[in-house]
Amino acid sequence: MEIQVNDLLTVETEVPLLEIHRFHFVWKFNQHGIMKLEGILNPNAPGLGEELFDSTIKIKNGEKNQTIFAGCLTDMQAVAFGNVKKVFLEITTGSWKLDGRKRSQSFQRVENTYEDIVRESIEAGGGRVICTAGRETTIEKPIIRYQETEWEFAKRLASCLGAYIIADVETGAPNLWLGIRKGEEIPAFSEEEYQVHIRKEEKASEKQAAYEVQSREYYQLGDTTSFWGESVIISEVRGAYEHGELMFTYRLSRQTASQKIYREPFTVIELLGTVQEVKGEQVKIAFDIDGGISTGDYFYEWLPETGNGVYAMPEKGAKLFVTFADTDKRGGFASRCLPMEAGREAIYQNRQLVTGEGNTMTLHREQVSLFGEQKHRFVLTDSAINLQTSRKLKIQSGDKIRLKGKEIMVKTPDIIKMVQG
Q1: E strand map for 185-229
Q2: Long-range pairs for 41-44 at CB < 8 Å and ≥24 separation?
C-alpha cells in the first residue's frame, strides 16, 4: 500500500495508515538506522495484527525515484482519541536481523582476508555485504567469534582495519557495508550557519572537530564535500518531516580511522577441541563450537599448565582446551588435555597420561594409579595399596624384603611359594 505524504514523498507500508503527520530518523556509522513515525490509522481497516511486525516500510522521494529510508517494523503502539486512532511506529534498518542471535565460531584459514570472514558470517545470517575494506588484508592468525551476533562480529572486525560498518537504508534487507561506502562528491554546504562539535575519543591522540549543517537536499553516508577548506565526509544523517516540510541535518567530519573494538567484558576464554594433527610441539585443533569440523590448518603451540619440565605431547584424537587470554582473542595456545576415560568427570586437579598402547597413569585427588592394557593395575590411596596382574608377580631384592602391617593377605588361585634364603 502506498500513502502520499505530500507532493513529493510517499510511504510504502502494510500498516493501514490514513495520514502521516511526522517522522524522523538517524543513520550513522556502526549503528542500525532507526526511524520514528507518527500517523493516523484508517478507521475502515481491520485491527493491527502481529503479522505486521517485521514488514518493510519505505519512505521515497517520488520526484527523484529515491529511497530515503527503508526498514522493518520493530515496534508499534496505537492510542485512541475518540474515533481517531493515533499510531506510533518504530522502523529499524534490516541490519537488526543480524543482531539477534549470538553464536561462536572459529576461522582458522589464515590465508583468508577480512572480507572473506565477514562475508561468510553475514551471509550465514541471511544478509549481504559490500566490502570497501579488508579485501586484501589477510587475517594472519585465527579469529574467534565468541558469543557475538553477526552485527557485533562484523563491527569488531571492521575496527581491526580502522574501518566502520554501515547499515543499508534502501532495501530494508539485512545488508551492510564493511568500510565506508563509496559516496558521491556533493556541492559544498553554506558556511553561513553551522554548529561545531569537538570531542576527543578514548585513547585518541588528538581532538576531532565535526560540523553540523542543514539542507533540504538528501545525501548519504560516505558522500564527500569540502567545508571551510577541509575535505570532509558525511558521517551522520538525520532526517525530520514535520508540518509538511522535510529537513536533513548532516554531520561533516574528516575521514578518520575507527577505534579498535574488543569483545567486552574481557575474559579469558577456553575452547574445547579435538587434536587433528601433531607437528613438533604444535597441534591442529577442530573446535567443538564448529561441530568438531576443522576450519583451517593453523597449528597452536602446546604450552601445558605443568610447564616444560615434564610433559608429553597430546596425540591425535585427544580432547584439549585452547586458551585465549589476550584482549582480541587472537593469541591462543593449547594448554590442558582432558582424560580420555569415558564417563569420568573432568576435574581441574586430576591429571592423566595415556599412551598409544593403552597404558595409563593417573594423578587424582583420591588416588594415584597405573594401568597396563587394562590387565594390570597398581592403585595407591590414603588407606590402601592395590596391586593386580594377570601375569607372574616377582618381588626380588639384593638384600632384605620386609612386609609390615596389621594384616598381610596374599591370595592366588594356584600356588604360593615363599622361600627365605
Answers
A1: 195-199, 208-215, 224-227
A2: 41/15, 41/16, 41/17, 41/78, 41/85, 41/86, 41/87, 42/16, 42/17, 42/18, 43/18, 43/83, 43/84, 43/85
The C-alpha cell that represents 305 in the structure block = 599448565
- Together in a domain, 365 and 285: no
Mean pLDDT value across residues 238-260: 92
CA distances (Å), origin 392, targets 36, 365, 397: 86, 30, 16
Q: What confidence score (pLDDT) does residue 260 get? A: 87
Question: Three-state SS for 397?
Answer: coil
Across 175-184, 302-311, 394-403, which has the greatest mean pLDDT? Answer: 175-184
The identity of residue 333, as a single letter, is F
- d(Cα 310, Cα 301) in Å, to the nearest integer? 16
Cα separation, 340 vs 357, whole angstroms: 13
Claim to verify: residue 57 and residue 79 sit in the same structural domain = yes
Residue 183 lies in a domain: no
β pairing state of 66-81 and 282-287: unpaired
When the pLDDT of each residue in the chain is averaged and rounded to a whole number, the result is 87
- The letter for the amino acid at 401 is I
Give the domain extent around 401.
349-421
Cα 201 → chain centroid: 24
